[in-house]
Every structure is written in structure tokens, then in C-alpha cells.
Specification:
Number of strands: 5
Strand content: 5-15%
Number of domains: 2
Order of helices and strands: HHHHEHEHEHEHEH
Structural class: alpha/beta
Number of helices: 9
CATH class of the largest domain: Alpha Beta
CATH topology of the largest domain: Rossmann fold
Bound molecules: CO-5-methoxybenzimidazolylcobamide
Helix content: 40-55%
CATH superfamily of the largest domain: Cobalamin-binding domain
């Protein structure tokens, strides 16, 4: 963990932070470590927001800085040889939730690891997940969520997939800021992925197993 980057990002010093990112990539630092630092900084931003020292503009700006960091780091994450996709993955941030930076990183990591990713975006109603699953027949479905207020939307989405008769055709993973294994149990998903690499590992494991 680089304290310098965590401090610059959490202090919202965009120019200096991007310089540090470029310098660390130049000297061969692992891009995943940079993303871990960015996440740590966002935890600090979130805490300051909860405590009332940062407000919505700071939250918005931190998101913009993080997007800029992700754009610099992404090309350094190696894409495997271009062969046929190893499986289809339908992903989206559930209804009522607009957070997408973490979800986009998951989409990107799944893509570079050989999955065909169908990203439905943010604020995705259960019906849109159901329709996409019926259309592209993925083996794996991912629900992202970052607000405690969307636990119910997570459950509604899993329930809608079951009601459409598609539940036994897919494995469902959940992830995102405030998700955990308890929420997974509540909404009836198959697994919780704490970060983008965990999502990839789970998906790889699932693709090897019969449903
Ligand atoms: Co908001 N926000 N936000 N926010 N925001 C949080 C999530 C919050 C924790 C901040 C806080 O108060 N401490 C808090 C939620 C509290 C709660 O519900 N318990 C919060 C709030 C309250 C809100 C609003 C309600 C604020 C308001 O309007 N009053 C509002 C909600 C709007 C809405 O969605 N309806 C809001 C808005 C926003 C912005 C739009 C300003 C902006 C989002 C920009 C964007 O996404 N385009 C924003 C931001 C930036 C944050 C924080 C600061 C950072 C989120 C982030 O990008 N993290 C966040 C605080 C925090 O996270 N600690 C906060 C970095 C990202 C790389 O990490 O998202 O965890 P993460 O993603 C990881 C893993 O979670 C995992 O992999 C990713 C990469 O490793 N992962 C998965 C993600 N999806 C996965 C799916 C998987 C598996 C793994 O399987 C499918």
C-alpha cells in the first residue's frame, strides 16, 4: 500500500495523484495494487462523507478522479490471447443504485480474463436482467450494489430470475461496497465476491463445474 497515493486521492488532489499513478506504473508496480490503494482512498472519502466533512460535490469529484485512475491503469492489466470466450457473464448495478466504478472494474477484469461480458449498466430493473438472461443465456450473472437501501432490489432481482424459470440455468454472484455473505443469503444468490479478482476466480471455478 502506498500511503502517498491513498493520501492524495482521499484529499482529492487529482493532478498529483495521477502523476503518482503514472510514475508507479512506469517503475513496474502491479496495477492491481494501485487499484487497491484507490479503493482504500475511497473508503476514507466515504467515511468523511458519513462524518459530514465531505459533501456530495466531494463524493462526485472522487468518483471522477477514480474513473481517471482506472482509465490509466486498465491498459496495463494484461488481456489474454484472443480465443473464443470461456463463458458469458451478465452484469449490472441493481435498481435504485447509480454506483458503477466498482462494477465497471469487475466488467473489465472479467473481459480481460476471457469472459463475454454483457453489462446492463446502472439502476437495472429485475425485468432487464431476466430479459438479458433469456436472450444471451449466460452461465453467470453478477449483481452489483453499493447502498444498504438496495438489498431488497438484489433479492427482487434473484426472485424475478427464479420466477422466470431461469434460476437453475445460472449461478448468481453479488458484490459491491456494502454487500457481504449475509446479504447473499438474504437475497438467495450463490456467492459474494469481495473484489474484482474474487469475481473472476469465482466465475472461473463455476465455469468448470456443472450447474
Ligand atoms: Co456514494 N455512497 N452515494 N456515490 N459512494 C457510498 C457507496 C457510501 C458507502 C459512502 C458513505 O456514506 N460512507 C454510501 C452508502 C452508504 C450505505 O448505503 N450504507 C453512499 C451514499 C450514501 C450515496 C448517496 C445516497 C449520497 C446521496 O445522494 N446522499 C448517493 C446514491 C445515489 C444512487 O446510487 N442512487 C451516492 C452517490 C455517489 C456518486 C454518484 C457521487 C459517486 C458514484 C460515482 C460512480 O460510481 N460513477 C459515489 C461514490 C464515489 C461513493 C464512494 C465514495 C466510492 C465508491 C467507489 O467507487 N469505490 C463510496 C464509499 C466507499 O466505497 N467506501 C460511496 C471504489 C470501487 C473501486 O470500489 O465500489 O467497492 P467498490 O468496488 C469493488 C468491490 O466492491 C467489488 O469489485 C470492485 C473492484 O474491486 N465489486 C464486485 C463491485 N461490484 C461487484 C460485483 C461482483 C463482485 C465484486 O459480483 C457481481
Amino acid at each position: 500500500m502506498s500511503d502517498e497515493l491513498v493520501v492524495l486521492l482521499s484529499e482529492l488532489k487529482k493532478t498529483e495523484a495521477l502523476e503518482v499513478v503514472a510514475r508507479r506504473l512506469e517503475r513496474g508496480d502491479d496495477p492491481m495494487r494501485l487499484l487497491d490503494d484507490a479503493r482504500e482512498a475511497m473508503r476514507i472519502v466515504g467515511r468523511r462523507f458519513s462524518e459530514g466533512t465531505y459533501f456530495i460535490p466531494e463524493l462526485v469529484y472522487s468518483g471522477k478522479i477514480l474513473e481517471a485512475v482506472a482509465e490509466i491503469v486498465k491498459p496495463r492489466l494484461t488481456r489474454g490471447p484472443t480465443t473464443a470466450p470461456i463463458g458469458r457473464f451478465v452484469l449490472g448495478t441493481v435498481a435504485g443504485d447509480l454506483h458503477d466504478i466498482g462494477k465497471n472494474l469487475v466488467a473489465f477484469m472479467m473481459d480481460v480474463n476471457g469472459f463475454e461480458v454483457h453489462d446492463l449498466g446502472v439502476d437495472v430493473p429485475p425485468r432487464a436482467f431476466v430479459d438479458k438472461i433469456a436472450e444471451v443465456k449466460p452461465r453467470i450473472v453478477g449483481l452489483s450494489g453499493f447502498l444498504t437501501s438496495v438489498y431488497q432490489a438484489m433479492k427482487d432481482t434473484v426472485d424475478a430470475i427464479a420466477e422466470a424459470g431461469l434460476r437453475d440455468q445460472v449461478r448468481i454472484m453479488i458484490g459491491g461496497g456494502v454487500m457481504d455473505d449475509e446479504v447473499r443469503r438474504y437475497c438467495g444468490a450463490d456467492a459474494y465476491g469481495p473484489d474484482a479478482m474474487a469475481a473472476v476466480s469465482l466465475a472461473r471455478q463455476w465455469i468448470e463445474e456443472p450447474i
